[in-house]
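Structure (tokenized):
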């Protein structure tokens, strides 16, 4: 049986924002009642258009921001109740790889200093020699020559910088890595190298990944299961093969139809969504996808559909999923 590593239950984050358009502060729900479980050793892909709440969810898991409600259980412990010291231990287990390797590395620190920083903070190595040896080992692991130890980020290419970011994440022996669009700032040829590196490292260290991307091909390549988000809500959640073969939500179908190389069974024609993504300050009533959904009925404007299991392990937040997709 698969072991649960991270369980997120009904997580919601609402920001109060002030804008010139409105006199009073407005509430913006960036993550709305999201529940997912990550099993040890798997890759869970999170997809959706920009602004759908994927990165906010990552920040909530790491407690870089506090949720409005909900629970985050890590190895069974509710991390929202942990003290600073308890959270330091959990942060060592959960690391993040950022989208922009240029911005995520301190330009004033050599890559040796960057990669070894966590070794000192978390008391993984006690002597300087141990730290240097471990840093060299980590750089070798990610394909950077150990002699580059004293070089600075600007002396590397984008792909190399991302390798340094991966070495930094690995330095504290994490269990879970949140990769937030880790290849979207890189050239296509380099993307494949980084994805393969992430796959190899996962196998070697039994890592669990939460892999966030707007690129469905990249997510398909890496993920065991996939969640599709729209306006802060989970629209569909399934085993990767099942979702790519037969999506059970009109939003996922439209997303997949826009990727030329992914042929969805019976839905090979490109589906153009109507209009823009609505404002999260004033989201639509009922099903939040209804203004753009080609299948919307009157009831969709009133009733909020629940994320429910349609087929074995395949969940959809469309109340008409069976009628649309399983006839
Ligand atoms: Fe479309 Fe209605 Fe399903 Fe929402 S519930 S996705 S509006 S058919």
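Design, position by position:
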């Amino acid at each position: 049986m698969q072991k649960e590593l991270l369980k997120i239950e009904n997580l919601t984050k609402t920001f109060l924002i002030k804008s010139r358009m409105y006199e009073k502060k407005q509430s913006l729900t960036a993550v709305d009642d999201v529940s997912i479980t990550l099993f040890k050793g798997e890759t869970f892909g999170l997809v959706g258009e920009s602004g759908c709440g994927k990165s906010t969810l990552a920040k909530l898991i790491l407690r870089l921001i506090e949720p409005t409600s909900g629970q985050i259980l890590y190895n069974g412990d509710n991390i929202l109740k942990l003290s600073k010291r308890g959270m330091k231990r959990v942060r060592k287990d959960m690391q993040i790889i950022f989208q922009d390797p240029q911005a995520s590395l301190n330009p004033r620190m050599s890559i040796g200093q960057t990669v070894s920083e966590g070794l000192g903070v978390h008391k993984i190595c006690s002597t300087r020699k141990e730290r240097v040896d471990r840093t060299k080992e980590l750089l070798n692991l990610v394909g950077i020559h150990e002699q580059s130890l004293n070089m600075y980020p600007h002396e590397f290419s984008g792909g190399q910088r991302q390798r340094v970011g991966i070495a930094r994440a690995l330095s504290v022996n994490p269990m879970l890595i949140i990769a937030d669009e880790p290849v979207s700032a890189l050239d296509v040829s380099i993307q494949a190298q980084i994805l393969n590196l992430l796959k190899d490292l996962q196998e070697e260290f039994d890592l669990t990944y939460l892999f966030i991307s707007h690129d469905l091909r990249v997510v398909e390549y890496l993920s065991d299961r996939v969640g599709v988000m729209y306006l802060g809500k989970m629209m569909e959640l399934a085993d990767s093969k099942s979702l790519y073969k037969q999506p059970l939500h009109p939003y996922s179908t439209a997303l997949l139809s826009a990727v030329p190389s992914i042929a969805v069974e019976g839905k090979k024609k490109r589906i153009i969504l109507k209009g823009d993504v609505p404002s999260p300050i004033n989201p639509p009533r009922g099903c939040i996808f209804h203004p753009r959904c080609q299948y919307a009925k009157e009831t969709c404007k009133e009733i909020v559909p629940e994320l429910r299991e349609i087929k074995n392990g395949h969940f959809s937040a469309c109340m008409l999923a069976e009628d649309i997709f399983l006839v």
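Reviewer-requested clarification: The longest helix spans residues 188-205. Residues 250, 287, 289-290, 293, 295-296, 300, 305, 318-320 surround iron/sulfur cluster (CB under 6 Å).
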